[in-house]
Amino acid sequence: MVYLCGVGCSCVERGISSGQPAAINQCQFWSAPVPTISSLIRCLVTYPLDLIKTRLQIQGELNKNGGKVPYRGMMATALGITREEGVHRLWQGVHAAFARHMVYSGTRIMTYKALKEKVFKQSSTDEYFPLWKSALCGVSAGALAQYIASPADLVKVQLQMEGRRRLMGFPPRVNGIFDAFNKVWMTGGVRGLWKGSVPNVQRAALVNLGDLTTYDFAKRFILRHTTLPDNHLVHVMASCCAGFVAASMGTPADVIKTRVMNQPLDDRGRGLLYSSSIDCLKKTVHTEGLEALYKGFVPIWMRMAPWSLSFWLTYEEVLRLMGAKSW
Predict the structure, then answer these.
(1) Under 8 Å CB-to-CB from 254, ≥6 apart: which residues?
(2) According to the UniProt entry, where is the signal peptide (predicted)?
(3) Is residue 48 within 8 Å of 90, Cβ to Cβ?
(4) What's the pTM value of the predicted model, to 2 decimals?
(5) How far apart are CA 304 and CA 298, in angstroms?
(6) How far apart are the C-alpha atoms of 110 and 141, rounded to whole Å?
(7) How crowded is the C-beta side of 285, counted as CA atoms within 13 Å?
(8) pLDDT at position 32, please?
(9) Which of 88, 162, 191, 214 lies 20 to 30 angstroms, CA to CA, from 110?
(10) Considering all CA atoms of the chain, what is the largest pairwise distance in Å, rounded to the nearest integer?
(11) What pLDDT, on a 0 to 100 scale, did the predictor assign at position 124?
(12) In which residue ranges of the chain is pLDDT below 70?
């Protein structure tokens, strides 16, 4: 699908339309849906790792001994879900993840490029872009995009834990994405939809600092200090760096975000376990130790590495097919 979009734009540029301005406009038109479509495809493929990550981050919550849980590691969690809940449960909540990416992915890419080109005035001929500017663009783009998409993330986390709750004998909390949105709205109103948005935005800012900024910096560094052309090898090297840095920087905030979003609420929509992300951080470290902040790191890294690699390779290739400037 992504390649068809790129090929279509490439054909327009080569002459199906009568003039060059139309081709340029067409490329600009596709600058928003291309990263979104690419992210949706990658989300579908890597989603089980996201669900496993969430389960790992919740297990042993606020228990000094880690709690008596049937799942321990990533593989045991995956096999346990498959055996006890069914293979299809590995994709539970994927529609909420799709809703998130419909907003998040296009927004972060477009915001990053807009900040670079409009605010910091980077021209197409500039080979060097200061790291601090790139970092500021990455943090800002990730924070803005995630804040807008935070309600979908909240519902996704609740849906991901629903199978586990029912397996443990708890009554159903939500029955699908629309029921989840409705219950959040009824208990917390508009503010309830953005519950957990603070650690969520913090995580997204750090992840995009690791992903967008690292990819941008690593790619330019490789091109500037080697004789390699701007090709797939450079994209692979830069995206591998981006995936590892993003996972390393984002995991602690991801753990806090998941726990705040998954906690039970009182009748007024207030959390029963944590009053804020700082409170969650303190309680997690106090009861489980610092290592608890990196629960789920392996599936996060395993998800982000191919995610970053496949996203950037696809995105760069589509830009090439469209005749647009490389990232």
Answers:
(1) 53, 57, 203, 296, 300
(2) none
(3) yes
(4) 0.71
(5) 10
(6) 8
(7) 10
(8) 62
(9) 191
(10) 70
(11) 65
(12) 1-32, 62-72, 124-127, 324-327
310-320 confidence digits (pLDDT tens): 778 777 777 77
**234 and 222 in contact (C-beta within 8 Å)?**
yes
* Chain centre to alpha carbon of residue 300: 10
Q: Are 111 and 145 in contact (CB under 8 A)?
A: yes
CATH superfamily of domain region 31-63+74-302: Mitochondrial carrier domain (1.50.40.10)
Cα 177 to Cα 205: distance, rounded to the nearest angstrom: 26
End-to-end Cα, the chain, rounded Å: 20
Token readout for 146 is: 């995630």
SS3 (DSSP) at 271: strand
What secondary structure does DSSP assign to 131-144, as a single string? Answer: HHHHHHHHHHHHHH
Q: Is 258 exposed, middle or buried (0-12, 13-18, 19+ CB in 10 A)?
A: buried
The one-letter code for the residue type at 62 is L
Domain locations along the chain: 31-63+74-302
